[in-house]
Amino acid sequence: MPKIVPYFPNKLISWYLQNKRELPWRNTANPYHIWLSEIMLQQTRVLQGLPYYLKFVEAYPKVEDLAKAPEDEVLKLWQGLGYYSRARNLHTTAKMVSEEMNGVFPDNHKNLLKLKGVGDYTASAIASICFNKPEAVVDGNVYRVLSRVFGISTPINTSTGQKEFKQLAQQLIDEKQPGTFNQAIMEFGARYCVPQNPDCGNCIFNDNCVAFQQKKVAELPVKIKAKPVKKRFFNYLVILSENERTILQQRMGKGIWHKLYEFPLIETSEEVNLSTLKKLQQFQDFAKKINIETISLFNEKPVVHKLSHQHLNTQFWIVETLEDSENTVPISEIGNYAVPVLIADFVSEFFENY
């Protein structure tokens, strides 16, 4: 454990107070608003998350409003923000706080951890910002700042590294203003001690930063190489009936996009052409239910949709039929359903002039 120096929190907070961005959740200690912002900003940049935060606060001013909203409505409002389990957990927790806690969020780290979707980082943020509890946050920004300033090479994606960085952050926190300290270190990592080419020459810590002094900035923090990205091949069957209806199905299995809607899907082990597609048993079973008139490929090249650990190589097959099958919806109402961005982009492009 590196030697703790008193200048660190003082310098950091001083920098923050002069340079912080004006963001709506920084003008409040309302646990609902802080919780909402922290959940939205998990694995999401501030610029992307801000419009969603404003939409949610407007649509659901209080946690009770969010709790009463239908899940499909919440997912639709969340559409485009990704990692949809966050939205489902958000809704579950809103109902828990509203119905079991009389709309009052827990005021300590231990009980905040009992809320669905709330981990150590989010619980620490709420406890420190809303209730002035000295609970240190540790996220990607914090790992980066601490590993560089104190020269720590322990991999951040190991239990040993996570424990070491948490202990260090906890020792550094300003106990008189823990919320300000936590926001300061996150802001500094997000805006100054950035992953690539930080401006170390003008950094407030360059006289003391181990990584800067030892020319190891680009090497820290250390992260063990992740598993290789999995390639998947999606074939969506976009049904178009003569009555301008289509089929949307809700994903109910485990995995990506749980409870979002999509067109009927056939997943294959590699990219397929029309001839190969028609030979697949899944397609033949589907064709028995739909009186297919014509089928054609919409996109010449697969659309590659990149998720954190998988790349979806996607083809959209336009299937025209003269009759309606069961469970169809009007094409004009597709926009009312919560769908993945991959589907939303296709719908916007294809149906714009349909």
Automatic annotation (TrEMBL):
Please list the cofactors this protein needs. Answer: [4Fe-4S] cluster
- Kindly give the Pfam families that the UniProt entry links to this protein: HHH, HhH-GPD, NUDIX_4
What does this protein's record comment on cofactor binding? Binds 1 [4Fe-4S] cluster.
The kind of enzyme this is, by top-level EC class, is hydrolase
Q: Which GO terms describe its biological process?
A: base-excision repair; mismatch repair
Q: Does the keyword Nucleotide-binding apply?
A: no
Q: Where is the HhH-GPD domain?
A: 40-191
Coiled-coil segments on the chain, per record:
none
Alphabetized UniProt keyword annotations: 4Fe-4S, DNA damage, DNA repair, Glycosidase, Hydrolase, Iron, Iron-sulfur, Metal-binding
The record's EC number reads 3.2.2.31
Which molecular-function annotation in GO is an example for this chain?
Answer: 8-oxo-7,8-dihydroguanine DNA N-glycosylase activity
> What SMART domains does the record point to?
ENDO3c
- Output the Gene3D superfamilies linked to this UniProt entry: Helix-hairpin-Helix base-excision DNA repair enzymes (C-terminal), Hypothetical protein, domain 2, Nucleoside Triphosphate Pyrophosphohydrolase
Q: Which InterPro entries match?
A: A/G_AdeGlyc_MutY, DNA_glycosylase, HhH-GPD_domain, HhH_base_excis_C, HhH_motif, MIG/MutY, MutY_C, NUDIX_hydrolase-like_dom_sf
Protein family: Belongs to the Nth/MutY family.
- Which protein is depicted? Adenine DNA glycosylase
Annotated source species: Aequorivita antarctica
Point out the gene that encodes the protein: mutY
